[in-house]
Design a protein that fits this description.
Length: 461
Amino acid sequence: MKRLLIADLMKSEGPRDEVTIQGWVRTRRDSKTFFFLEVNDGSCLKSMQVVVNEDATGYADSKPIATGASVTVVGKLVPSQGKGQMWEIQASSLEMLGAADDSFPLQKKRHSNEYLREIAHLRPRTNLYGAVFRIRSKLAFAIHRFFNDRQFFYVHTPIVTASDCEGAGELFRVSTLDPKNPPLTEEGEVDSAQDFFGRSTYLTVSGQLEGETYATALGNIYTFGPTFRAENSHTSRHASEFWMIEPEMAFCDLAGDMDLAEEFVKSVIEEVMETCKDDLQLFFNFVDKELKQRLEFVLSRPFKRVTYTEAVDILLASGKKFENKVEWGVNLQSEHERYLTEEHFKSPVTLYDYPKTLKPFYMRANDDGKTVAAMDVLVPGIGEIVGGSQREERLELLLENMKAHGISEEDYWWYVDLRKYGSVPHAGFGLGFERLLMFITGVGNIRDVIPYPRTPGHAEF
Ligand code: 4AD
Ligand code: MG
């Protein structure tokens, strides 16, 4: 008989005569003539309690069934006497598929997240990580739904690319060279210009530039894919490989971009709160007692919107002693972001109109000559989750910026073309998928919301 999902059985409206479940044993409790199993199949947070009496088929061979083993259970779904569950299964038959001995590392006790990172292949079998990764999946769907509902097209931008969108030089080189026998230059040095069958290529840091080419053809588009940054950041919010969502809209300015970012963040949080109630409850109860209130607060009012210049004034007026000095023109550090979101506004904040010296070549110059039409969304506890801008659509000004940033027109000829042929105002942003997931779950470390985190020096799996 086909297996049923525990998630569905938990919602059953009445008892059922014969059901089959398959999953992994979380715990076993023995009595004289029967025993209990808690079986989890990953479909939901809850495990199904199974009662196995001595008359059940398989009872005689059930000794080795222990925590971690995989089983098939057939039986009746009946109301449970136990606390916290509507239903349990009275087994008529029980079969072990794969044993697990007592070296199985997830015995019933709380493990630290640090320890569980070392067994990243087994951690999705815990309550916490099971919930994180179910929510991750639902969040991805909510994101696709959001854009699909608004007639944005999903564009797959390349992972291997020759361009450095952010111009920060944080690139992973993609090489096809044989390290033992590399091509050499006339000077006898490794000819890295021949990296990728004859040219230098890298893992993408952002799909934006390619996304712009599709926005200026299809109108509104978004990307959703892995991006890579070779920055040597050892923080709880940076990973070398992370997923980014990047909408790009033709005929749109910075105000429209900020509106979309806010609507987007709120809408997907709302959907996840609706579709992941049980899993989220775990985070509300055990990870962050203020999380629920914080999420509801975020949904209930507009984000604060202030210019970079106003933010600097607020920081200067705060009288706070920051480690990093604040003055107009510096990059705001996480202590500043925290002050703005957690102490001053106590709300997500959209900062806009940044000094042009802080930002990449593609951002649109404002009339003041000093700032660009950039925006970041900052949230309490995390800091920046969104970075975006209106793009420079004026050919002359773009070329000027490229020159100022040392970017060759030859390499970006296709990007420049967009300003030569039917140029339009356009804008977009990037949202860090893992950072949003951290915000929604209250999980404090990016390593705990991506299945196999890649951070400097870590890629064991
Ligand atoms: O601010 P960033 O660098 O912006 C861009 O890449 C633009 N090209 C986006 C665009 O306009 N289409 O990155 C965007 C977001 C950040 O706000 C942050 O949430 C996330 O990506 N991010 C990271 N997340 C995890 N680890 C890292 N190392 C990250 N770097 C950026
Ligand atoms: Mg940024």
